[in-house]
Design brief:
By secondary structure, the protein is of the alpha/beta class. The chain is 13% helix and 18% strand. Strands 1-2-3 form a three-stranded parallel beta sheet, with no helix packed on it.
């Protein structure tokens, strides 16, 4: 799944949990912030994530470490 553009925000991420076979996610040029990444924590199938040109900061590190990508 590719999420791209300034209209993509945290509200969009909550719908990804309805995709039980989601394996790859690219987040690019969005309005998503660090706290929004919590929506991804329950997606067990996720094994690849790329976040580019998106206003996240170091606060997201713990959230990212908890994702299935690292298990």
């Amino acid at each position: 799944v590719v999420l791209r553009g300034p209209n993509i925000n945290g509200e969009c991420l909550k719908y990804l949990s309805e995709m039980p076979r989601l394996r790859k996610l690219l987040i690019r040029d969005t309005s998503i912030v660090s706290a929004d990444l919590l929506w991804l924590k329950d997606i067990e199938s996720l094994d690849h994530i790329e976040i580019l040109y998106t206003p996240i900061d170091d606060k997201c590190i713990d959230t990212l470490r908890g994702l299935s990508v690292w298990r």
